[in-house]
Structures are given as structure tokens and as C-alpha cells.
């Protein structure tokens, strides 16, 4: 009989502690997921630029100049464009549609450089 009277269920304090712990874990999970999504976006931008860079090299080998267009990249997270192209150089730009934490919203690739440098491995 004493057992039933002593343990009737959870107290309000115990319930609040559980709710706080679940809230903290949910916050950590959501922030980690957001950071991972931004990292994936940066990697998608880098991949698209490096692919376009390879296309430019192939075009130059065949045509003797760089192309003023790139293949369409259908990714709603960023846009890809050629800012400048001639017989000696080109400039490719990937512009993010959202803000990234590391300042890599705009990536620029030329025939010889990748910038900003801290955005490239």
C-alpha cells in the first residue's frame, strides 16, 4: 500500500526538467542541421563552378577562346553566370540566394584563381 501512495506519477518539476532537456536537444539538432545545409550549398556552388571551369578549358581547346555562356545549373539556392570571357581569360561567378555564415555568398573563378580564398579547400 505504501508503494502506491509514494509513486503515483511524475511531479510537475520532473515533467518540466524533461521538457527543458527535450527543448535543448531540439535546439542543438536544428542549429546543426542548418549549418549542414549551408555547407551543402557551398559545396554545390563550388562543384558547379569547377564543372564550368572544366567546360571552359574544353571550349578553349576546341575554339581557341573561352565561352560566354555556361550550361544551365538548375539549383534554386544559387545562380551561375559568366561575367567575362575572351581569348585569354574568363570570369565565372556563383551567387548564393541566401546568406552564408562564412562570407562565401559570392564565389569567383577565373582561369588562374579561386576566390575568396578562405571558401576553397
TrEMBL record:
Pfam families: N_methyl. Keywords: Membrane, Transmembrane, Transmembrane helix. It comes from the Bacteria. Signal peptide: none annotated. InterPro entries: N_methyl_site (IPR012902), Pilin-like (IPR045584). SUPFAM superfamilies: Pili subunits (SSF54523). The chain crosses the membrane at residues 12-35. This is Prepilin-type N-terminal cleavage/methylation domain-containing protein. It comes from Alteromonas salexigens.
Amino acid at each position: 500500500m505504501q508503494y502506491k501512495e509514494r509513486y503515483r506519477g511524475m511531479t510537475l518539476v520532473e515533467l518540466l526538467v524533461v521538457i527543458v532537456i527535450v527543448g535543448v536537444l531540439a535546439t542543438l539538432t536544428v542549429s546543426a542541421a542548418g549549418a549542414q545545409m549551408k555547407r551543402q550549398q557551398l559545396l554545390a556552388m563550388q562543384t558547379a563552378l569547377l564543372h564550368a571551369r572544366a567546360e571552359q578549358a574544353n571550349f578553349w581547346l576546341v575554339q581557341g577562346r573561352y565561352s560566354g555562356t555556361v550550361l544551365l545549373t538548375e539549383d534554386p539556392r544559387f545562380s551561375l553566370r559568366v561575367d567575362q570571357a575572351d581569348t585569354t581569360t574568363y570570369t565565372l561567378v556563383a551567387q548564393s540566394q541566401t546568406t552564408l555564415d562564412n562570407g562565401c555568398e559570392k564565389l569567383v573563378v577565373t582561369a588562374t584563381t579561386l576566390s575568396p580564398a578562405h571558401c576553397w579547400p
